Amino acid sequence: LVLFLYTRALAISFFDNIYHYATAHDNSEAAKELAMPRILSLVMLHNNYHETHHTQPSIPWNALPKHQRKPFGASIIDGARAQFAGPILAANP
């Protein structure tokens, strides 16, 4: 049970961080839009339209692709790899 809970926590943290890693501290970019195959996007409830969700939270998940404002900047694989670059330290104010 402990191993299951640990694995689940790690997966949730990893997949949530993909969309927020290296975004601006001033919140000018709430999250990233990451490209993935259409069928995978559907299975993941269009979670790759993450900035669209943050800027328009009242839109249902199945309508997110229709409301995307800017093109994908990278792929889900690029987003996953980027996290392993290490922590990002905030600039001194």
Question: What does this 3D model show about the protein?
Answer:
By secondary structure, the protein is mainly alpha-helical. It is built from 4 helices and 2 strands. A two-stranded parallel sheet has the order 1-2. The protein starts with a helix and ends in an 11-residue tail after the last helix. The mean pLDDT is 90.
Number of helices: 4
Beta-strand percent range: under 5%
Assembly classification = single chain
Q: Tell me the strand order in the biggest sheet.
A: 1-2
User: What is the number of E strands?
Assistant: 2
Average per-residue pLDDT, rounded, comes to 90
Shape: globular
Helicity range: 25-40%
Task: Give the topology.
Elements: H1 2-18, E1 34-35, H2 38-43, H3 50-55, E2 74-75, H4 76-82
Parallel strand pairs: 1-2
How would you describe this structure in keywords?
93 residues; mainly alpha; 2 strands; two-stranded parallel sheet; 39% helix
Short overview:
The chain contains four helices and two strands, in the order αβααβα.
